[in-house]
Amino acid sequence: MAKILGIGIATLDIINYVADYPVEDSEIRSTGQKITRGGNITNTLTVLSQLNHECFWAGTLADEPDAETIKKDLKRYSINTRYIQVHSNGKVPTSYIVLNEKNGSRSIVHYRDLPELTFEHFKTIPLDQFNWIHFEGRNIAQTKLMLTHLNEYKTVIASSIEFEKYRDGIEDLYPLSNTLIFSKDYCLTVSGNDPEAFLEELHTTYPNKTMILAWGDKGSYGINKDQGIVFKPAIKQPNVVDTIGAGDTFNAGVIDSLVNKKSLLDALDASNKIAAYKISVSGFDISNYV
């Protein structure tokens, strides 16, 4: 078991289930609705906690009723919130999600009116208790300061960054973490439709990094200085129920594998498997998987 700190946002997810995705300027009836906690980093921590790691979340919440839904769900999964930053004003970030029951796909409209975690708050956290710290690739200026502080810390602590989507200046984070986890959308935005070329070119500049690229239903790629580039095909899932957080679950598989000193190829295999399981169930309860 490792002690893992996650830095990023939590959201209130309002999920509307529909029999088929609506066309623009139409009205349809939802077959069901669920209100729950979401957000990339807390999704990842929820999975890691079920993989028997001790998980902590550092992010921000507003002092308002919807925050209680988030805190209640985190408590359910034994995620420690002692390092959160609470703001007296603002609104908990909210994702309005349409989930297509026909194929499990989801479309999201996201609203936020809340500052993200500050470097000044991050500095107050005693980092030497953690084995791994995982960052969302967002809030770039503050995250850069946090990672720089982490790299100058008295104790060497492994870290990872998720690059889900491109943001201005996000390249500045490349040299600051041990493990870089990229999404397919990120690669397509910054490089194009050649995952191996993307990883090989980036690894030439940063040869000591471990880099992982999830490529949707095709599989996942990875590269490090010991193994070069490797690939694992996706696990085919015939029963797709809910794709919300599949990438976050994949990231949890990566962190669990690497913190347990598994090989890069084994990490890809484990991450593909757990992501395939996740899309076969609604939500993030993976108790039947583990």
What does this structure look like?
With about 290 residues, the chain is α/β, with parallel strands linked by helices. About 30% of the residues lie in helices and about 30% in strands. The chain has eight helices and 14 strands. It has helices at about 40-50, 65-75, 120, 140-150, 185-190, 195-205, 245-260, 265-280; strands spanning about 5, 10-20, 30-40, 55-60, 60, 85, 90-100, 105-115, 130-135, 160-165, 180, 210-215, 220-225, 230-235.
How do the strands of the widest beta sheet line up side by side?
4-1-9-10-11-12-13-14
Determine the N-to-C terminus distance.
Answer: 14 Å
Based on Cα principal axes, name the global outline.
Answer: globular
Q: Please tell me how large the radius of gyration is.
A: 18 Å
CATH top level?
Answer: Alpha Beta
Domain count: 1
Mean pLDDT: 95
User: Runs with pLDDT <50, length 5+?
Assistant: none
Helical content, roughly? 25-40%
Question: What would you give as the CATH superfamily?
Answer: Ribokinase
Query: What is the string of helix and strand elements?
Result: EEEHEEHEEEHEHEEHHEEEHH
- Please tell me the CATH architecture by its name: 3-Layer(aba) Sandwich
Number of helices: 8
Sketch the major β-sheet.
8 strands, mixed
What share of the residues does DSSP label as strand, in percent? Answer: 25-35%
**Got a strand count?**
14
